[in-house]
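USER: I would love a firmer grasp of how sequence relates to backbone shape in proteins. This is the protein in question:
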Amino acid sequence: MTTTTIGSVTSADGTTIGYREIGHGPGLVILHGAMQTGDSQLELAEALSQDFTCYLPDRRGRGRSGPVGPGYGLHREVEDLAALIDATGARHVAGVSSGAIITLRTLLVRPDLDSAVVFEPPLFTDGSAPAAGLSRLDRELAAGRTAAALVTGMKAAQLGPPIFQVMPRRVLELLTGLMLKGGGKDAAPGGAPTFEELAPTLRQDIQLAAEASGDLTEYRTVRPEVLLLAGSKSPAYLRAALERLERILPHARRTLLEGLDHSATSNAAQRGRPERVAAVIHRFLGPGRAGS
C-alpha cells in the first residue's frame, strides 16, 4: 500500500476539515459521497497516486473533520472544498455522488481550476427532488430508528436496486438493521466510522440533492473542463442528469462505464471497481494536463 499522510485545513466558518494525502504530482481532490468518508475512495487514489497527489477529505460531520455546525447548506460544503484547494494548490477535483454536487457548485466560483470529474450527482431534473423525505428522516433519526432512516434516505434518493422500490418497507428495515449489526460487530476502536455512526449525515446529503436539483442552466458559465461519469447499471435518473449537464456545460464530455453502478468509485470491499474508474480519469487528465 502506498504511504499516506494526514493533514487538516480550516474552513471559512472555523470548521476543521481533515484529509488523507497520497501520491506525488499535480493535486487532485477526491470528494466522497453519502454514507462515506475520504477513505472510501482510498483504492481509487492509490491507483492514481503514481501521477497525482490525491487529497481525500472527510466532509464535515464525518471522520477526522469537525461537526456539521449551524447554517449548513451547499455553500458550507463549497467553502470546505475551497479551503482545501487553497491550502494544497490542487487544480483538479473529482466528486462522487453528493460530492459531485459540491464539485459542480464549486466550479461556478473557482474558474481557476483546470478540470473536474463528476461521478453521478443525484440531481433531480423532473421536479421530484427528495426534500419531502427530510422531515420523516429527521423523525426517525431523533427516535433512534437508524435502519428506518436509512431506508427513507435511500428511497428518497432512489439509489437502491430496482427491487428496493417494490419490497415491503418492513422487510427493508429488517434487512438494513441486520446490515447495521453486522457492520458494527467488526468495527475497530478508532477505526473508520460504521454505517450506524454515518447514518445522521445522510440528512445532509439529501439536503444537498434537494438544494441543487431543478434548473441546471446556471452551469453554462463553468469554465474548467469536466468529465461526466456514470455506470450503465446505475439508476436512470443519474444518467439522465449527466446527459442534460453534457448539453449545458461548455467544456464537457460524458463516459458510460459499462457494467458498473453507483458504487464504482468505492474500494473493492464495497463492490467498487476503482482501477477501472482510475483508468478513465487518467485518460481524461492525460499526460499533458497532469503536469499543469
Q: What stands out?
A: The two ends are 26 Å apart (CA to CA).
